[in-house]
């Protein structure tokens, strides 16, 4: 017997392979940003931060690497074995956006340590996602909730 | 080499180390020390305990592997009477999250008939681990498909 105490919602579903593909592209771009440095790498960093922003604010449908997967890669692979809830990867895009903006600030304001640290952390998260299918941001989410929440039994409205 | 190249290498090593460690330890059933078995009851959980055992799963909306763990546990408990599966939203049960030190979703607690927490599985649950832990708690190996013992 199985019971769920979560609110019954019909979440937006996505192909999980698109996420892995997007994370792989993100990893390559962030590695490129680091190798090129704060000056030469800035245009690439801007592109990647815009991609994070599109996935986070507009939705995964608008994440450009996911779009490339859907239009160019997925037709060659066929249907996925199972679909996945879109909320976890969208939250991961939001975490990426925060790191991307921090790295941009570091590059523009002449703070190389901030630039390298923020981009480095974003690269670790993207690599974990691409290689192991782990969503680091999603785990930080619960830790953040624990720190911020007071344990009150409040039902969150789902979007 | 420039600083950036070193950071790329460091990020790669960190990602491989964290990911590799996770792959080895995720979903392994760990027995809770017998001298301190915290208890949970149906009233606290908001659902009935199973007559023999209960799997309490902590999930969250931003957790992709929670779905697979839910399906696995629902399947395993569906075929065994007396074992219940309760899937909680960790975000709305921060009291339990704090009390049991849940840091990741999915985390699964296995309770015995009396509601004592006997095993803990952090990360996506693994079928053989869940089955072995259930057998230990219920003291039988019923409903296990015929297959050679593997240890």
Q: Mind explaining what this structure looks like?
A:
- The complex is a heterodimer of chains A (159) and B (151).
- With 159 residues, chain A is mainly alpha-helical.
- Chain A contains 6 helices and 3 strands, in the order ββαααβααα.
- Chain A is globular.
- By secondary structure, chain B is an alpha+beta fold.
- Chain B has a single domain, classed as Glutaredoxin.
- Helix content of chain B is 39%, strand content 19%.
- Chain B has 5 helices and 5 strands; from the N terminus they run H-E-H-E-H-E-H-E-E-H.
- In chain B, strands 1-5-4-2-3 form a 5-stranded mixed sheet, covered by helices on one side.
- The mean pLDDT of chain B is 87.
- Chains A and B meet through strand 1, helix 1, strand 3, helix 4 and helix 5 of A and helix 1, helix 3, strand 3 and helix 4 of B.
- Strand 1 (2-4) of chain A pairs parallel with strand 3 (83-89) of chain B.
Question: Which oligomeric form is depicted?
Answer: heterodimer
Q: What's the overall average pLDDT of chain B, rounded? A: 87
- The figure for the number of domains of chain B is 1
The termini of chain A sit apart by 29 Å
Beta-strand percentage of chain A?
Answer: under 5%
Order of helices and strands of chain B: HEHEHEHEEH
Series of secondary-structure elements of chain A, N-terminal to C-terminal: EEHHHEHHH
Strand order of the largest sheet of chain B: 1-5-4-2-3
Q: Roughly what percent helix of chain A?
A: over 70%
Indicate the radius of gyration of chain A in whole angstroms: 17 Å
Dominant shape of chain A:
globular
Overall CATH class of chain B:
Alpha Beta
* Largest sheet features of chain A: 2 strands, antiparallel
Task: Compute the number of strand runs of chain B.
Answer: 5
CATH architecture of chain B: 3-Layer(aba) Sandwich
Main beta sheet of chain B, described? 5 strands, mixed
Which protein chains are joined by the largest interface, and how many residues does each one contribute? A-B, 53 and 50 residues
């Amino acid at each position: 017997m199985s019971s769920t105490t979560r609110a019954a919602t019909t979440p937006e579903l996505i192909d999980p392979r698109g996420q892995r593909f997007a994370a792989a592209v993100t990893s390559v771009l962030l590695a490129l940003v680091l190798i090129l440095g704060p000056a030469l790498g800035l245009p690439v960093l801007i592109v990647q931060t815009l991609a994070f922003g599109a996935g986070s604010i507009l939705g995964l449908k608008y994440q450009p690497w996911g779009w490339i997967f859907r239009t160019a890669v997925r037709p060659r692979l066929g249907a996925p074995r199972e679909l996945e809830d879109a909320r976890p990867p969208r939250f991961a895009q939001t975490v990426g956006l925060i790191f991307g903006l921090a790295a941009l600030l570091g590059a523009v304001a002449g703070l190389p340590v901030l630039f390298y640290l923020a981009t480095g952390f974003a690269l670790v998260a993207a690599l974990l996602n691409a290689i192991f299918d782990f969503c680091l941001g999603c785990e930080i989410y619960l830790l953040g909730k624990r720190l911020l929440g007071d344990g009150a039994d409040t039902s969150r409205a789902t979007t | 080499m420039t600083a950036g190249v070193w950071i790329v290498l460091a990020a790669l090593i960190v990602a491989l180390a964290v990911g590799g460690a996770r792959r080895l330890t995720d979903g392994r059933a760990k027995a809770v020390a017998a001298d301190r078995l915290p208890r949970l009851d149906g009233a606290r959980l908001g659902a009935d305990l199973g007559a023999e055992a209960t799997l309490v799963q902590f999930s969250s909306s931003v957790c992709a592997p929670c779905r697979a763990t839910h399906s696995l546990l629902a399947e395993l408990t569906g075929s065994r009477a007396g074992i219940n599966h309760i899937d909680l939203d960790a975000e709305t049960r921060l009291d339990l999250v704090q009390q049991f030190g849940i840091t990741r979703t999915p985390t699964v607690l296995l309770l015995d008939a009396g509601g004592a927490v006997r095993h803990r599985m952090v990360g996506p649950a693994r079928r053989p681990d869940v089955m072995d832990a259930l057998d230990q708690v219920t003291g039988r190996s019923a409903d296990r498909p015929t297959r050679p013992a593997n240890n």
